[in-house]
User: What shape does this take?
Amino acid sequence: MCGIVGYVGSQSALEVVLAGLRRLEYRGYDSAGVAVLADGGIAAAKKSGKLVNLEKALVDRPLPAGATGIGHTRWATHGGPTDANAHPHLDNAGRVAVVHNGIIENFAELRAELAARGHALTSETDTEVVAHLLAEEFSGRADLAAAMRLVCRRLKGAFTLVAVHADAPDVVVGARRNSPLVVGVGEGEAFLASDVAAFIAHTRSAVELGQDQVVEVRRDGAAGGVGVAVTDFDGRPADVRHFRVDWDAAAAEKGGHASFMHKEIAEQPRAVADTLLGRIGADGELILDELRIPAAELREVDKVVVVACGTAFHAGLIAKYAIEHWTRIPCEVELASEFRYRDPILDARSLVVAVSQSGETMDTLMALRHAREQGSRVLAICNTNGSTIPRESDAVLYTHAGPEVAVASTKAFLTQLVACYLVALYLGQARGTKWGDEVLGVVRDLADIAGAVERVLADMEPVRALARSLAGAGTVLFLGRHVGYPVALEGALKLKELAYMHAEGFAAGELKHGPIALVEEGLPVVVVVPSPRGRSVLHDKIVSNIQEIRARGARTIVIAEEGDEAVVPCADHVVWVPVTPTLLQPLVTTVPLQVFACELAVARGNEVDQPRNLAKSVTVE
Ligand code: M6R
Assistant: This one.
């Protein structure tokens, strides 16, 4: 997830673009760059790190003035957060500049093709191929929108692209597929941006671009206005929807949501889909991002140990079910903070999986270093490209959740789960415990999850109302079985950190061994019910557990699969989730618990993005 701005008008493009990037920096801050059309050419500057680094560089080496420009603030996916990988990317002649958000899945084959035609590609990004392809298609045609359409037809994956060409000084073009792009239309000026926050200070009049569309914004010198033309990738004119932005500037940065956490919960369908992008190779095999472990070693792995903290630890607990089921390799899951102090038994045949959103959590980093000292290989699942944990690992699978700003982890958790499932399948594939068609079958099920999460999110008002009604409660318990048990732990953690309430998660089968003593009249108990299809024994047992606590006065809030009528008689409230394969169920059952905790926190007057006493990245042990 990156932030993109394009501008054509009469103001200083550099100033407008930089101001837009400042408002989009929440989307990524690995690097920033700008390109301005000036003096018949393109003047560009880019710098790794936060936007402020670029701004300092521009003070030292100012760009010439121009009224057409583009800019980018990066959340690294392909290639580390370096100056060379920063956008904009230019072709070899320096006549075209392009910025990109998304992942171009077939970039390797396009890159090889361009290299064979004599192009020199200088970065590690997937984006750079677009600059070169655009330059080729523009030459002899002199129509940047037409060139963009031809290029887009060749791209696979998800992308927003915005480009300028030195020979089309009054034009900026953009394109989108499965990635956001909006057009702002002002008096004699137009803006392209990842979201309206970038241009709300200039105009509230906007145009929404549809899927697979190309937009050209052109300054009309004679009339002093700008034209906006939208087509599909085949050049057919498209219907466009105009709308008026009525958010204030602060709300715009959060996409109109009340907080970053609300926004990040809503972004989960996209985050899940993005994490799956580009995972299947040409021969149908699964692909990790960086793999420095020989296949023979992976086949020899005799133990998997997942190390992580907090929410990432809960993702690891769920991973255990998938890893053991699909690979038949024993899997341990350990709190990273405990790991090295108990002298764990590790050797060269142990694979340690370190899960971390930030990639900087000190406990997880220390666990990783300890594992490597013992000769074990480490595979990282991480959301932050270029951070320490993936840098020090032998293999990496990046989640593509985009920046998670709110301290409470939501979209990172769902994408960590997707990544854990992919790692389990990868090991199964490497060891031959899963056939190729079985792997593809699960990947197809995973691909359906984004839609399922969207359906859950569409029906959350009853959950919010329930949360508000519990604002005065002292304790909430969470129960689950099988993969629903870590979901219960995660539900309780969310409530503790956001609502500052006493909350505990239990394996429902443990209830009779002690925790049931906590149950008293009116105590809210959330129960995550396994599917009645896959594990009918467990399902029946948990229904009995619900009856037991209800008989003791508990107010039962049941998360159950659509059509599971058996839970209705024993539930005070039922939250329905779509039918999913048993192992993937946490991807849908966690979502109502996030919404529940967030709403309860708001109802109690808490600051959801920055809960008290916490930090987003815990870089001390
Ligand atoms: O960046 P990491 O995934 O390594 O962070 C691990 C935990 O600190 C984190 O998940 C924490 O528990 C969250 N605040 C939970 O919402």
Observations:
- The first strand starts at residue 3 and ends at 8.
- Residues 309-312, 356-358, 361, 364, 407-409, 497, 617-618 surround 5-amino-5-deoxy-1-O-phosphono-D-mannitol (CB under 6 Å).
